[in-house]
Amino acid sequence: MNNTLISSAITLVVGFLANKFLPAGSATWAVPLISAVAGVLLKQSPKDGATSGAIGGGALGALASVIGDPSVGSMLSGVLGGDTANGLLGSLLGGGVLGGAGGGIGGFLQGMLNKGKS
Fold first, then answer.
1. Given Cys at both, which of 8, 63, 88, 112 links 55, Cβ 3.0 to 4.6 Å?
2. What pLDDT was estimated at residue 78?
3. d(CA 42, CA 76)
4. Global pTM exceeds 0.90
5. Are 65 and 85 in contact (CB under 8 A)?
6. Cα–Cα distance between 78 and 53 in angstroms, integer?
7. List of residues 6+ apart from 113 with CB closer than 8 A
8. What's the half-sphere exposure (Cβ side, CA atoms, 13 Å) at 24?
9. Is residue 49 a contact partner of residue 103, using CB atoms and an 8 Å limit?
10. Residue 118: strand, helix, or coil
11. In sequence order, what DSSP letters do the residues of 41-102 get, joined into one string?
12. CB neighbours of 95 closer than 8 A, spacing ≥ 6?
């Protein structure tokens, strides 16, 4: 549980910085990458990595939406419709999906590293 909270915080903080200082739309690729790297560094299982990535990415999406930058949720525009995807729900879901996918991949990679060492 401790690693999950740390990984979620890493995804949230580093994702926020990437969203703030990198060009627009960078969070779409940065959040899964950050979540995957955090999963590998903290030696998480795919389940824990996906959970922490979803929490961190979802929190980032909600935070970005609240401060007026809903870019994290823009990938859901085709599913939820234009107005909804720019809102809190779209950003929360978009960030959660992106972070969860990255964290799951990071956990899978960590498992493959562990398997290679045995």
1. 8
2. 46
3. 29
4. no
5. no
6. 23
7. 40
8. 6
9. yes
10. coil
11. HTT--HHHHHHHHHHHHHHHHHHHHHTT-GGGGGGGHHHH-HHHHTSHHHHHHHHHHHHHHH
12. 15, 27, 31, 57, 58, 59, 60, 61, 62, 64, 72, 73
Nearest to 37 by CA among 53, 20, 26: 53
> Average pLDDT of 29-40?
86
Q: How far apart are CA 66 and CA 45, in angstroms?
A: 31
Could you tell me if 105 and 32 are in contact, meaning their C-beta atoms sit under 8 angstroms apart? yes
In degrees rounded to 5, what are phi and psi of residue 43? 55, 50
Tokens of 102: 């990255």
Mean pLDDT across 109-115:
80
Q: In the structure encoding, which two tokens stand for residue 115, read together?
A: 């398997």
In the numeric block, which tokens belong to residue 103?
A: 């964290």
Measured distance CA(31)–CA(60) in Å, rounded: 9
Number of neighbouring beta carbons within 10 Å of residue 88:
16
